[in-house]
Amino acid sequence: MSDEEVQVRPIDFVRDEQPLKTLLNDRDKMRLEHAEPALNDGDCFIYVAAERGVPVGWAIVHLNYRDDQDWEPDEDGRAYQSGDNAYLENIEVTARFRSQGLGAKLITAVEDEARRRGKRNLWLHTSENNFKAHQLFERQGWQHETSVYPAWKPGARMRVYKKTL
Ligand SMILES: CC(C)(COP(=O)(O)OP(=O)(O)OC[C@H]1O[C@@H](n2cnc3c(N)ncnc32)[C@H](O)[C@@H]1OP(=O)(O)O)[C@@H](O)C(=O)NCCC(=O)NCCS
User: Fold this and answer.
1) Which pLDDT score, from 0 to 100, does residue 153 have?
2) Is the pTM of this model over 0.90?
3) Whose C-alpha in 21, 48, 58, 161 is 20 to 30 A from the C-alpha of 108?
4) What residue owns the CA closest to ligand 1's atom 40?
5) Which residue, by CA, sits nearest to atom 31 of ligand 1?
């Protein structure tokens, strides 16, 4: 796979929404739909990894907490989207395209963009047993801050990672 074939770029919502949805589970499809007004208002941004124009991965970052994003109640989650903080809600590369460096490229792209938007810290949650993701984030300079049992995922232990930008 050459660099020309897979490009990491900001989402073009009109063009990318439907093909991106074919990669996503139902919950993430719903989250993408909810993100559209936040994108338009500059409260959120999305990067896609696109092969010949078609999304094969994405990363979504929230810059400002909004009531219309269907968040479960979570004071920490709100703090991660306020002031100097931004929240990497989701990053996914479709299975066939994994282990080719696209996850790392998406992370670098969203870090650069969050910095450009004036943020100092990026935060994310990932499952305690998602070892592949832990390795990737740690290699990219993220730190495991704490582990929590969030109200929005009952019974699941989640890691909170932070990247200082
Ligand atoms: C986590 C995830 C986004 C990583 O995406 P990815 O595109 O596979 O990430 P990368 O390719 O940059 O890095 C992953 C591995 O590929 C390896 N790799 C990177 N470039 C490579 C290349 N050119 N050739 C071979 N291997 C390569 C890396 O060493 C890394 O291996 P390691 O983590 O075992 O050390 C992907 O696995 C995924 O979508 N998982 C499901 C969703 C998820 O868990 N999201 C994270 C929580 S929000």
Assistant:
1) 85
2) yes
3) 21
4) 92
5) 99
Gap from CA of 148 to ligand 1 centroid (Å): 24
3-state secondary structure the chain: CCCCCEEEEECCHHHHHHHHHCCCCHHHHHHHHHHHHHHHCCCEEEEEEEECCEEEEEEEEECCCCHHHCCCCCHHHHHCCCCCEEEEEEEEECHHHCCCCHHHHHHHHHHHHHHHCCCCEEEEEEECCCHHHHHHHHHCCCEEEEEECCCCCCCCCEEEEEEEC
Which CATH architecture describes the domain 6-164? Answer: 3-Layer(aba) Sandwich (3.40)
* Residue type at 146 in one-letter notation: T
pLDDT of residue 154 exceeding 90, the answer is: no
Lowest mean pLDDT among 31-35, 72-76, 151-155: 72-76
How many whole angstroms from 98 Cα to the centroid of ligand 1?
5
| Domain definitions of the chain by residue range | 6-164
Q: What is the mean predicted confidence (pLDDT) over 58-66?
A: 96
Residue nearest to atom 15 of ligand 1 (CA): 99
